[in-house]
């Protein structure tokens, strides 16, 4: 384990899900889960024994307090989650089945978190002694205020010598909702990062170039271009997903270091319960192995285990322990007694 707590900066969200595989509003009930890209990674790592702290802002009402209680209840320190005028960010999910894809409707404009800016956070204090700062591309996509806050967090971490983990999480609809410059903003954030969660498409966006290879060769070509463009980067991690049906995906994981890389074999994931948050589970698995001193193979396999396991679990976050990762690699699917 690393010295210093792991700090996560991003928005807490409430998810409202249609029951079973129903469409939204098909029946008058919705299941509630709390998540958010950075919070999901924090919860995943807290369940693996890491000291995690969330930095965010929520409205001073029952929704905000409930979201904080849920994240705190999952083992994440929420002392740095503050109240701010505005509303709680929401999203609605209809879980797909067979040949019908899942569908998400966002309702997060004007949220308390999106209204905050760099002056609302004392990042030098919040990051003092931290072992890692984790950010994602969703925060800067929310608007100019949160983009400035994300940049301020990353710059403070760099100034303090705190390693930065950044998940690209490109969301075109969020960026297109305001007069944004995603390539410039994301390039600066990646420029501060030691660890990048992103594939060849993410790197194509920020580097303005296409990668011509196929499969593993294309991913390595993209990683080498990323390492050349961003001298601070030490590790790039990604998944490759092939969707057969909404309930059956094939997933492989890859970790690239500057002088080597490892890609896992593809695994069939069937009987999918909930794929939301699978990328965040992957990030938690990779970071867990990285912070525990694992090599590229260990990181890729740990990330793959958690992302596959997450598909079996309702809600946004991974809640698995090391024993679950070990059991996944052991292949035993009978009841554990």
Low-confidence segments, given as residue ranges, are none
CATH superfamily: Ribokinase
**Rg from alpha-carbon coordinates:** 19 Å
CATH topology: UDP-N-acetylmuramoyl-L-alanine:D-glutamate ligase
Q: How confident overall, as mean pLDDT?
A: 95
Strand and helix order: EEEHEHEEEHHEHHEHHEHHEEEEHHH
**What count of structural domains?**
1
CATH hierarchy class name: Alpha Beta
Overall SS class:
alpha/beta
Span of the ends, CA to CA: 29 Å
Strand coverage percent: 15-25%
Largest sheet: 10 strands, mixed
Overall number of strands:
14
Helix content: 25-40%
Number of helices: 13
Shape from CA axes?
globular
What are its keywords?
alpha/beta, 10-stranded mixed sheet, 4-stranded mixed sheet, 38% helix
């Amino acid at each position: 384990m690393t010295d210093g707590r792991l700090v996560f900066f991003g928005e807490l969200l409430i998810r409202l899900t249609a029951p079973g595989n129903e469409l939204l509003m098909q029946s008058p009930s919705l299941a509630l889960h709390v998540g958010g890209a950075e919070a999901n990674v924090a919860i995943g790592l807290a369940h693996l024994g890491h000291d995690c702290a969330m930095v965010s802002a929520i409205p001073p009402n029952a929704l905000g307090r409930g979201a904080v209680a849920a994240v705190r209840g999952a083992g994440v320190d929420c002392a740095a989650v503050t109240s701010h005028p505005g509303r709680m960010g929401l999203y609605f999910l209809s879980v797909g089945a067979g040949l019908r894809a899942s569908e998400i409707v966002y309702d997060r404009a004007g949220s308390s978190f999106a209204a905050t800016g760099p002056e609302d956070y004392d990042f030098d204090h919040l990051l003092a002694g931290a072992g890692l700062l984790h950010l994602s591309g969703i925060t800067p996509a929310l608007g100019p205020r949160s983009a400035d806050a994300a940049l301020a967090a990353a710059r403070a971490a760099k100034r303090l010598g705190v390693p930065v983990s950044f998940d690209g999480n490109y969301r075109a609809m969020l960026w297109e909702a305001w007069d944004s410059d995603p390539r410039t903003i994301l390039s600066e954030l990646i420029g501060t990062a030691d660890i990048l969660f992103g594939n060849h498409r993410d790197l194509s966006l920020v580097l303005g170039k296409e990668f011509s290879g196929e499969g593993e060769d294309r991913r390595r070509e993209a990683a080498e271009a990323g390492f050349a463009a961003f001298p601070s980067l030490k590790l790039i991690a990604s998944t490759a997903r092939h969707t057969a049906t909404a309930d059956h995906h094939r997933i492989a994981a890859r970790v690239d270091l500057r002088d080597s890389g490892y890609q896992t074999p593809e695994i069939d994931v069937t009987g999918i319960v909930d794929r939301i948050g699978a990328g965040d589970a992957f990030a938690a698995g990779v970071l867990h192995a990285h912070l525990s001193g694992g090599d590229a193979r260990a990181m890729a396999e740990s990330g793959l285990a958690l992302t596959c396991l997450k598909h079996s679990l309702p809600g946004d976050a991974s809640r698995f322990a090391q024993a679950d990762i070990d059991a996944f690699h052991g292949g035993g699917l009978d009841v554990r007694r």
